[in-house]
Amino acid sequence: MELDEMKTLWTEMSAKLEGQKKLTDKMIMMMTQERYQRKLSKIRTPELISTVVCFIIVVLILFSLNKFETPYLLACAITSATILSVLPVLSVWAIRQVSRVDIRAGNYKDVLVEYARAKRRLLSVQKLSFYLSFVLLVVALPVAVRMTGGKTTHIESGTWLWYVPLGFLFFTVFARWVYRGYVKITIQLENLLREIEEQ
């Protein structure tokens, strides 16, 4: 074999290997993107279901506005409807921002920066949800009593004595569990992105 033939053969083999490496990298990115979306669906699906439930409750409150005769009950109903409208929208928007991180486009550093920004938004929205849900816990009781046919315009003080402590206790435990789940998923997503650098 002559030297020129060996150079040509070497160049062809190098081009084939480079093409295979690009194809392999592309497949790794596609598989990572798929795993990323699958992990994210663990929080996206429950959020979408709870969003539908919240909007159904808002519609029920709006159709029952005539039941809230006093300014106190009307204020509770409007506050409940507002919180139940805003929180799910913010949550779905924040999850969508995390979902839109495109691993296949851009370089690794840009992907990590975009993910870190989206993660911060998501966890901030979850913290905001935590605090606004405490308000919802208080204003929802009069609304629920009135909508289910309660005759009194004010709730008896005995009800508040057991509802508030038990409600806050249950809500705090549940909210912390949900928040930890969100943090766990975001850490898993970040680890998935960091695996790209190692490959």
Please describe what this structure looks like.
This protein has 199 residues and is mainly alpha-helical. It has one domain (3-198). 86% of the residues lie in helices and 0% in strands. It contains 4 helices and no strands. The chain has helices at residues 3-63, 71-99, 108-147, 157-198. Helix 1 runs antiparallel to helix 2, helix 2 packs antiparallel against helix 3 (108-147) and helix 3 (108-147) packs antiparallel against helix 4. The longest helix is centred in the N-terminal third of the chain and has 61 residues, at 3-63. The chain is elongated. The protein starts with a helix and ends with a helix. 18% of the residues are buried. The model has no long low-confidence stretch (mean pLDDT 81).
Report a brief summary of the structure:
The chain is mainly alpha-helical and 199 residues long. It has four helices and no strands. The chain is elongated, with a radius of gyration of 26 Å.
Number of helical stretches of at least 4 residues: 4
C-alpha end-to-end distance: 37 Å
Give the helix level as a range of percent. Answer: over 70%
Largest sheet: none
Helices and strands in order:
Elements: H1 3-63, H2 71-99, H3 108-147, H4 157-198
